[in-house]
Amino acid sequence: MEITTILIVLAIALVLWVVFSYNRLIKLRTRAKEAWADIDVQLKRRYDLIPNLVETVKGYASHEKDVFENVTKARAQAVNAEETGDPKKVAQAENQLSGTLKSLFAVSEGYPELRASENFSKLQEELRDTEDKIQASRRFYNRNVRDLNIRVQMFPTNIIAGIFGFQKQDFFETEDPKERENVKVSF
């Protein structure tokens, strides 16, 4: 009778462990999806701001046509990459867009009356705020992906992950090694 009781207790403990592990994996996967959606919201905000910013700068710097075309093209590529949902493609396109935005702001430096424009200043501040939120969203996403990936790979939870089809997810990383280098500041 005692052995039967021990086997029943062990079976119940095993079932409870499987349920707990499965629910934990579901929670982690849902958090990673939520974090990706946060990135998506901020990117949408950025995409909406960019045309307004470009039009504002165009009014002052009409001869900088290449810069405007590059920003518009990079924005379109970023929107297309986002639709794939692939963090690597999105990261690459977003890094390219960030680079073209830097060139747009560099052009604006040559036009003091543009920098003094209230509309331009407001758009620039909103875009800067959005960039900060995108960075925070990326970090939040990567933290959640890290937690999920650890659980998916760690024994014994990896057994449950394998049975129920949980897989590692990709981090949102920069592809451009130049972005990892220290910024040089000279006075």
Task: Summarize the structure in words.
- This protein is mainly α.
- The protein has a single domain (25-177), classed as Up-down Bundle (de novo design (two linked rop proteins)), CATH 1.20.1440.
- Helices cover 80% and strands 0% of the residues.
- The protein has 6 helices and no strands.
- It has helices at residues 2-60, 65-84, 87-109, 112-115, 118-153, 157-164.
- The longest helix is centred in the first third of the chain and has 59 residues, at 2-60.
- The protein is rod-shaped, with a radius of gyration of 24 Å.
- The model is unreliable at 182-187 (pLDDT under 50).
Pick out its properties.
mainly alpha, 6 helices, disordered C terminus
Please tell me the overall pLDDT.
83
Helix percentage range: over 70%
Supply the helix-strand structural class: mainly alpha
Could you give me the name of the CATH homologous superfamily?
A: LemA-like domain
Poorly predicted ranges: 182-187
Q: Label the CATH architecture.
A: Up-down Bundle
Calculate the terminal CA-CA distance, rounded to whole Å. Answer: 84 Å
What string gives the helices and strands in order?
A: HHHHHH
The count of β-strands is 0
Q: What value does the Rg take, in angstroms?
A: 24 Å
CATH class (first level) name:
Mainly Alpha
